[in-house]
Inverse folding.
């Protein structure tokens, strides 16, 4: 019997469909930007952004939000940006586009979030930006990173692509850095197909962010009645999201607790089921969530005891209809990473995650199937060992 | 206890014991014991550091709460084997609750009876002599307990001999699976076994495990010598992989020398002799294995050469999954498998490796063994557990 457990499953319901239908039945679907405005209100409410200078901007993707964050940071040739090696290329390429030098550092064991000690060791007089990427929706050690950024005068940017709904010490992830970016890509907990958000926590950056996202014009001020016409005033990009995508996203944001709650149930079921297997040494490790952090159930991963097993395990599971992909190739070990960046310190954990990490299917409702998936994963590991 | 409360059946288990999960899973999933019909009381260990995962529906009662019960509130107390720690716990429990020892039963695991018999053989009776493995608490318990869950042959009759009194013997004990999680077990005995069988067929290989765990050399000397003869003079259309366990404890010097010489001889000479029509023999030494690795390794084995006593769980699993079991005549394990369970056994006549590559597997109707075991178990426990015979 072949199973059917994809890595991600759509969570769209009639609710999102209803919002899109309602929008499309209007004569002018861009008029008033009602859905995107509701989305930004909902995100601001969720993050607890009650101070007006703090602003949420919807963007076509998290990548575009990061590119705007890079523009806001003002980095250029000769400046250094410290970031984890174990992250997606978008985190890096936004800053490489500005000509900055990327400085890759290692991750912490267990969470694979950026290691603050490695960041501190990597700081130089040229450091302008530190990027905290909250892997798997688990918060980085923001207290330590904030202190380092403050000490060296760098801008702290949160790449919270995976972390919508996560908190640390009761505070929403995405509210500690100067700016933060979120993703609503198809693979994320909440999705509008492709979309993102830029959250500007530093009030000094808000006005410029609005200009950059409006193709470099002061169109935003024009709509607020602050200027009598708008014109090109700065660099910029088309950083706005379509209303159709916003309608879908609104539906998802309104169901965030339901979706995240069901994912966390699946995450917890995996974590309990893999505990004896970790103790037995069948797997090398389960994820670690630091004290005080509440994740959003974005990813459940395991570490295999031997990198050589991973291709076989993935293939075995695929044959059984279970999609269990690996994740990032550490950026320091990529063609572009070597071209645009340099390494600071050892890359023990990044390399370990890069070679041994396996992600498991996680979607609302997966909790009921966890015993079967875990049994199949265990079987795949043992079969792969036997073949080897 | 009020008149409306039901008396409790208590499973008194050592906290953190790796065999707890297999016992509880077997009772609930294989023997249809209603998980609500008993409570688990864990003794010893660090309650914060150690976590015992209980099957769904099984409740745990704290040690202190259990001590506050009285005889009327207790229907039965069940122990898994008897060893110094649980004998001490039982004595304390009985002293506090005044529970009658007539309500106490022991599920025999496998080799403890032989240990007690050796003590009697050495000192004349259980009461006499003192060793670390047979404490006063154990002697106290064995003098009072009459209920034993084990097969009559070989364990029950030996127990009656050494305790010198008639006992209430179930003539079965819970036959466990190596993997307590039912889904795990189904996947391993289904898909993993299919794939392993396929790989073995593809490699035209027969894998033979010598003993189910690391044991002294003298126990396997005869088989090691058989292997040497098989290497020098044998004939086989299969390649043969022989699995030995890495020896962890120190052993006698000459044993070590002989063992190593033979192994080196076989490992180095086999590829040469293969050119002259001798069998293709490979030797692997097994390290300590996780439960799942062990299961996979067993599934791979065409045959398991078992020891005289202990290792019943592994041997059962091998037989249940179609493996050949090789046992010495008259040994505890031979009596258990051959006489009590009537499963086919392979005996060593000339050269066991030659025999194993020349013969085909006997079909084992293990479901018959399980059915008989369940029937006997239900009879024995009818007054203790709430059983669902219709399942």
């Amino acid at each position: 019997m072949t199973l059917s457990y994809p890595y991600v499953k759509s969570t769209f319901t009639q609710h999102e469909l209803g919002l899109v239908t309602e929008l499309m039945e209007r004569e002018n679907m861009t008029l008033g930007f009602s859905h995107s405005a509701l989305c930004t209100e909902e995100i601001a409410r969720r993050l607890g952004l009650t101070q007006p200078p703090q602003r949420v901007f919807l963007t076509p993707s998290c990548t575009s939000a990061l590119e705007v964050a890079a523009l806001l940071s003002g980095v250029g040739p000769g400046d250094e940006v410290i970031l984890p090696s174990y992250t997606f290329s978008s985190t890096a390429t936004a800053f490489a586009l500005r000509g900055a030098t990327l400085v890759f550092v290692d991750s912490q064991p267990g969470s694979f979030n950026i290691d603050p000690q490695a960041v501190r060791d990597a700081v130089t007089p040229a450091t302008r930006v530190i990027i905290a990427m909250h892997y798997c929706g688990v918060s980085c050690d923001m207290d330590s990173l904030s202190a380092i950024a403050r000490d060296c005068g760098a801008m702290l940017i949160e790449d919270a692509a995976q972390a919508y709904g996560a908190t640390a010490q009761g505070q929403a992830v995405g509210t500690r850095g100067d700016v933060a970016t979120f993703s609503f890509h198809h693979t994320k907990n909440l999705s509008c197909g492709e979309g993102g958000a830029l959250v500007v926590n530093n009030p000094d950056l808000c006005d410029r962010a609005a200009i950059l996202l409006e193709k470099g014009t002061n169109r935003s001020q024009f709509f607020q009645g602050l200027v009598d016409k708008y014109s090109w005033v700065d660099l910029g990009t088309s950083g706005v999201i379509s209303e159709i995508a916003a309608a879908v996203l609104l539906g998802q944001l309104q169901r965030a607790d339901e979706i995240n709650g069901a994912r966390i149930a699946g995450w917890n079921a995996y974590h309990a089921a893999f505990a004896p297997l970790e103790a037995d040494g069948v797997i090398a490790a389960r994820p670690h969530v630091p004290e005080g952090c509440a994740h959003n159930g974005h990813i459940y991963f395991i570490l295999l005891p031997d990198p050589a097993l991973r291709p076989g395990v993935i293939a075995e599971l695929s044959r059984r209809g279970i999609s269990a992909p690996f994740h990032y190739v550490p950026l320091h070990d990529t063609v572009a990473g070597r071209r645009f960046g340099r390494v600071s310190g050892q890359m023990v954990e990044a390399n370990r995650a890069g070679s041994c990490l396996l992600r498991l299917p996680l979607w609302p409702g997966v909790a009921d199937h966890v015993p079967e998936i875990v049994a199949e994963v265990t079987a795949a590991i043992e079969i792969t060992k036997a073949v080897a | 206890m009020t008149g409306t409360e039901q008396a409790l059946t208590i499973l008194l288990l050592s906290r953190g014991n790796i065999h707890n999960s297999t016992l509880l899973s077997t009772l609930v999933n294989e023997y249809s014991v209603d998980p609500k019909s008993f409570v688990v009381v864990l003794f010893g260990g660090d309650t914060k550091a150690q976590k015992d995962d209980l099957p769904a529906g099984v409740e745990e009662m704290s040690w202190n709460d259990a001590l506050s019960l009285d005889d009327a509130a207790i229907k039965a107390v069940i122990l898994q084997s008897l060893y110094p720690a649980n004998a001490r716990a039982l004595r304390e429990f009985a002293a506090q609750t005044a529970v009658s020892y007539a309500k106490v039963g022991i599920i025999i695991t496998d080799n403890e009876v032989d240990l007690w018999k050796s003590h009697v053989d050495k000192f004349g009776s259980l009461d006499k002599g003192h060793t670390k493995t047979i404490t006063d608490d154990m002697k106290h318990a064995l003098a009072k307990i009459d209920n034993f869950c084990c097969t009559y042959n070989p364990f029950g009759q030996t127990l009656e001999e050494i305790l010198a009194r008639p006992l209430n013997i179930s003539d079965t004990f819970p036959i466990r699976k190596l993997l307590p999680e039912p889904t795990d077990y189904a996947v391993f005995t289904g898909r993993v076994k299919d794939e392993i069988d396929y790989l073995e067929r593809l490699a035209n290989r027969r894998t033979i495990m010598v003993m189910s765990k690391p044991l002294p050399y003298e126990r396997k000397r005869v088989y090691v010598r058989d292997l040497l003869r098989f290497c020098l003079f044998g004939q086989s259309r299969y390649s043969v992989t022989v699995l030995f366990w890495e020896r962890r404890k120190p052993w006698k010097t000459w044993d070590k020398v002989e063992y190593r010489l033979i192994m080196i001889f076989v490992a180095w000479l086999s590829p040469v002799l293969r050119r002259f029509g001798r069998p293709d023999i490979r030797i692997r030494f097994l390290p300590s294995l996780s439960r799942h690795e062990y299961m996979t390794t067993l599934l791979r084995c065409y045959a398991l050469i078992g020891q005289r006593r202990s290792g019943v769980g592994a041997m059962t699993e091998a037989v249940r999954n179609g493996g050949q079991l090789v046992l010495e005549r008259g040994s505890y394990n031979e009596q258990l498998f051959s006489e009590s369970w009537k499963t086919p056994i392979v005996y060593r006549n000339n050269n066991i490796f030659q025999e194993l590559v020349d013969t085909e597997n006997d079909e084992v109707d293990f479901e018959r063994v399980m059915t008989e075991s369940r029937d006997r178990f239900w009879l024995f426990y009818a007054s203790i557990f709430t059983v669902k015979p219709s399942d």
Remarks:
- The interface with chain A takes residues 21, 51, 53, 181, 183-184, 186-188, 191-192, 195-196, 199, 290-293, 295-296, 300 of chain B (CB under 8 Å).
- Residues 386-391 of chain B have pLDDT under 50 and may be disordered.
